[in-house]
Structure formats: C-alpha cells, structure tokens
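Blackboard transcription, Thursday session:
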Amino acid sequence: GEDVEQSLFLSVREGDSSVINCTYTDSSSTYLYWYKQEPGAGLQLLTYIFSNMDMKQDQRLTVLLNKKDKHLSLRIADTQTGDSAIYFCAERMNTGNQFYFGTGTSLTVIP
Amino acid sequence: GAVVSQHPSRVICKSGTSVKIECRSLDFQATTMFWYRQFPKKSLMLMATSNEGSKATYEQGVEKDKFLINHASLTLSTLTVTSAHPEDSSFYICSAVGTGSYEQYFGPGTRLTVT
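(Written on the board underneath:)
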C-alpha cells in the first residue's frame, strides 16, 4: 500500500477551529477523501476533493490540497463536541480504484 | 443515499472454525467491493479488492487461502475467515463502489472475536 501519514492526536476547545493534516506519497491519486469514524462504528464520508483542485469548502469543512507537497488538510470551523472522533484521510488510486487510508487522527473537543 | 450493510455485526467463534461475513449494497450495484481490516485504534488496512464475477485481488501479505472472498453478484460480496485464530480477531469493514462512481460507501463493520 501507499504511505499516508497523519498526526495521531489533536485536542481543541469547543468553538475553535480544528486543522487535521495528511501527507501522502503517491501523486497518481485521483481523489482524496476525509472520513469520520466514531467509536465502534463504520466510516462516514465527510468530503472529498479531486486531485486537480486546490480547495473545497462544504459548510464547516474546508479541504486544502497542495499537490506539489502532497499535503492535504481538513479544517473544521466552530468545532463541536460531536466532532470528537477519528478522522481518516484516504487517497483513491488512478488504477484499480484502491483506497489507501491514513493512520487516523483522534480529535478530542474540550467543552 | 447509497447504503452498504454487513452481516453479522458481531461474531464470536472458537479457534479453528470458519466465519463468513456478508457485505451487501442495498440500493445500488457495486462492481467493486473492498475488504478492510482495522486493528484497535489503528487505521484501515486494505485486504483485497473484489470485482464481480472474477477472482479477488489481494494486497501483499494477505493470505488468500485464509481470507476467502467471493463476489458472486453485483450486490453481494462475502469474506470467509477460514480456520480462525485469536490473532484474526479484528474489525472487518467492507466498502462498495457503484458503477461509474467516485465514492466508496462503507459498511458498518463486523467485529470478529476468536476465542
């Protein structure tokens, strides 16, 4: 599989913005995704970005993609306690449709 | 929206037995399904890619004789863990991609515990 790295933990105060970062190694990905996983549950697709885009905004979520540096970030504005979860970035490969997931970032929102 | 189900959601089995996990796309046809394994507090590890009507493609290091995958129809893929051992205990998640789609829809996962 590909190397997709994320920092393991992030804590923010309720109402602040959260920024979760992801770096990847393969530049042939077509789409990059952010998923949310709550304890004991499956994955929920939050948003995605096509690899030729730099930014995508979707309500409280902003995705930034720096393809040159192979860096993807997810910004959550006005973070709420319900946003506490593990967030995974994933890249979809150009061939075969395989998805490779990052190591996951555990976000804790402090009331 | 697209829904993917998995059955069972939890299973406990004895060491040496085999367990079958089903993954179904409920309201769309999935030409490709994926099987992942997730260890506690770890990321998802892609195990195999399952294409309808053909043999699954396994990732490096995944034993195809141990993790049998069958994708007999456009809405159903099964993963059979053969001769299960305690180290096979894990959270198994499937996903499905519809024809011409760019989105991967995930099932809720199956918690396998081998005693």
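Lecturer's comment: The interface with chain A takes residues 32, 34, 36, 41-46, 49, 57, 59, 93, 95, 97, 102-109, 111 of chain B (CB under 8 Å).
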